[in-house]
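quick one if you have a minute, typing this from the bus. theres a chain ive been looking at and ive put its sequence and its fold in C-alpha coordinate form underneath. please have a look and point out which stretches look like helix strand or loop to you. anything you notice is useful, everything is just below.

***
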Amino acid sequence: MSEKLTILQDKLEDRHHVFMVYKSQVNKDLERSGFEAVEFNEPKEFLEALVSLLNEAIEDSDSKLQQLYYLADVQEKNLEKGIILGFLMREWSKIQFRLRQ
Protein backbone atom coordinates (compact mmCIF):
# COMPACT_ATOMS: atom_id res chain seq x y z
CA MET A 1 0.00 0.00 0.00
CA SER A 2 1.37 3.40 -0.86
CA GLU A 3 2.22 5.92 1.83
CA LYS A 4 -0.57 8.27 0.72
CA LEU A 5 -3.12 5.47 0.85
CA THR A 6 -1.96 4.56 4.36
CA ILE A 7 -2.31 8.19 5.45
CA LEU A 8 -5.80 8.35 3.93
CA GLN A 9 -6.78 5.14 5.72
CA ASP A 10 -5.51 6.55 9.04
CA LYS A 11 -7.54 9.74 8.57
CA LEU A 12 -10.67 7.75 7.75
CA GLU A 13 -10.18 5.52 10.79
CA ASP A 14 -9.67 8.56 13.01
CA ARG A 15 -13.22 9.85 12.66
CA HIS A 16 -16.15 7.65 11.72
CA HIS A 17 -18.30 10.51 10.39
CA VAL A 18 -15.51 11.55 8.00
CA PHE A 19 -15.30 7.97 6.75
CA MET A 20 -19.06 7.87 6.20
CA VAL A 21 -18.95 11.11 4.18
CA TYR A 22 -16.03 9.76 2.11
CA LYS A 23 -17.75 6.43 1.55
CA SER A 24 -20.93 8.19 0.46
CA GLN A 25 -19.05 10.44 -1.98
CA VAL A 26 -17.10 7.55 -3.52
CA ASN A 27 -20.18 5.34 -3.82
CA LYS A 28 -22.20 8.14 -5.39
CA ASP A 29 -19.60 8.53 -8.14
CA LEU A 30 -19.24 4.76 -8.53
CA GLU A 31 -22.98 4.22 -8.95
CA ARG A 32 -23.40 7.17 -11.32
CA SER A 33 -20.67 5.59 -13.47
CA GLY A 34 -22.36 2.21 -13.57
CA PHE A 35 -20.28 0.43 -10.91
CA GLU A 36 -21.75 -1.17 -7.81
CA ALA A 37 -21.30 0.58 -4.48
CA VAL A 38 -18.66 -0.71 -2.05
CA GLU A 39 -20.49 -1.54 1.16
CA PHE A 40 -17.78 -2.26 3.75
CA ASN A 41 -18.18 -0.30 6.98
CA GLU A 42 -14.54 -0.21 8.05
CA PRO A 43 -12.04 2.06 6.27
CA LYS A 44 -9.39 -0.62 5.68
CA GLU A 45 -11.83 -3.10 4.14
CA PHE A 46 -13.58 -0.36 2.18
CA LEU A 47 -10.33 0.92 0.64
CA GLU A 48 -9.10 -2.61 -0.13
CA ALA A 49 -12.38 -3.47 -1.88
CA LEU A 50 -12.36 -0.17 -3.76
CA VAL A 51 -8.77 -0.64 -4.96
CA SER A 52 -9.63 -4.20 -6.00
CA LEU A 53 -12.70 -3.01 -7.93
CA LEU A 54 -10.70 -0.32 -9.73
CA ASN A 55 -7.80 -2.69 -10.47
CA GLU A 56 -10.20 -5.15 -12.02
CA ALA A 57 -11.81 -2.40 -14.10
CA ILE A 58 -8.37 -1.30 -15.32
CA GLU A 59 -7.37 -4.86 -16.24
CA ASP A 60 -10.64 -5.30 -18.13
CA SER A 61 -10.31 -1.87 -19.82
CA ASP A 62 -13.79 -1.09 -18.52
CA SER A 63 -15.29 1.88 -20.34
CA LYS A 64 -17.04 2.97 -17.12
CA LEU A 65 -13.67 4.15 -15.78
CA GLN A 66 -13.63 7.18 -18.05
CA GLN A 67 -17.07 8.22 -16.78
CA LEU A 68 -15.95 7.65 -13.18
CA TYR A 69 -12.90 9.90 -13.54
CA TYR A 70 -15.01 12.53 -15.30
CA LEU A 71 -17.61 12.53 -12.50
CA ALA A 72 -14.95 12.60 -9.81
CA ASP A 73 -13.24 15.47 -11.65
CA VAL A 74 -9.85 13.74 -11.53
CA GLN A 75 -7.38 16.02 -13.26
CA GLU A 76 -4.70 14.57 -15.49
CA LYS A 77 -1.92 15.87 -13.21
CA ASN A 78 -3.40 13.73 -10.39
CA LEU A 79 -3.36 10.66 -12.62
CA GLU A 80 0.44 10.90 -12.75
CA LYS A 81 0.43 9.58 -9.16
CA GLY A 82 -1.40 6.54 -10.42
CA ILE A 83 -4.91 6.10 -11.69
CA ILE A 84 -6.33 4.62 -8.51
CA LEU A 85 -4.49 6.91 -6.11
CA GLY A 86 -5.46 9.92 -8.23
CA PHE A 87 -9.13 8.98 -7.86
CA LEU A 88 -8.91 8.28 -4.12
CA MET A 89 -7.11 11.53 -3.37
CA ARG A 90 -9.51 13.59 -5.52
CA GLU A 91 -12.48 12.16 -3.63
CA TRP A 92 -10.66 12.97 -0.38
CA SER A 93 -10.11 16.59 -1.39
CA LYS A 94 -13.79 16.92 -2.38
CA ILE A 95 -15.04 15.85 1.05
CA GLN A 96 -12.43 17.99 2.83
CA PHE A 97 -13.86 21.02 1.06
CA ARG A 98 -17.41 19.97 2.01
CA LEU A 99 -16.51 19.34 5.68
CA ARG A 100 -14.96 22.80 5.99
CA GLN A 101 -18.15 24.53 4.84
The longest helix spans residues 83-100. Helices lie at 3-14, 16-32, 43-59, 64-72, 76-79, 83-100.
